[in-house]
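Progress narrative, work stream C.
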Amino acid sequence: MSIAENKKAYFDYHILETFEAGLVLSGPEVKSAKKGEVNLKGAYVILEGTTAAYLIKAYIAPYKPASVYQRNYDPYQNRQLLLRRKELKYLFGKSQEPGLTIVPLKFFLKGGLVKLSLGLARGKKKFDKRESIKKREFDRRKKSLIDA
């Protein structure tokens, strides 16, 4: 079940591979995420060598019933990603290649746990984006003609 999706990432990047990662979250953050109060717009992933990965600038709203206990809560705080060592080494090697980056794609639930889908991506050029827009518009027109 998808909680939040980074639609801008699919428009700005060619997604080459996807990975699934767990997150280190506090209890109120998990409850807020399960309610769908998450925004990945402008979020990105950084790697700290081959030892750790962090999700930066992802917004998880403060959980309202726990707001009494969370006085200094920062909704944009850095959150550690839980990946296998082999995946971390692979992503670190790929992120060193020119033109490749790691972007968060979507938050989702899997077996009651909050997970994050990561994408190894290459940026699109302007003409690629125009092509995506043309294809999207064509599909909308085609669907409207079929439905009518």
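Work stream C, second folded protein:
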Amino acid sequence: MTIEITRIEGMKLKANIDGFEVISGRIDDNTPPEGPSPSKLMVASLGLCVGLYAAWYLKRHSISDEGLTVTVDATEAREPARVGSFKVKLNLKADISEEAKTGLLASISRCYVANTFKGKPEINYEISAENS
């Protein structure tokens, strides 16, 4: 999976993802943001992933997905600045059994994004500078 990020202007960036554009940042300190910050996009990615895994589980088990929402509360930590913890809350308007709740929890716990965070992925940086 490769995603390219391009600077548009000032501190405003664009990610091209499978034909979709995601804008983050602002032109300068005097302009309003034109999209969510990278950290909020990260938190949203976790919630979206959990929501998808929940929807798949509910569909596979013919359980109503009415009112399905996911709320992610991210708590900041310092040194280095980062998210220190996530609290993920899944809400449904359906009446489901304890067995289904257990299965649903097992399913959402396998979310790709959450597994990535849990696995402490290796990050390698490379800088390429070209003379004009």
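The chain has three helices and five strands. No further action is required on this item.
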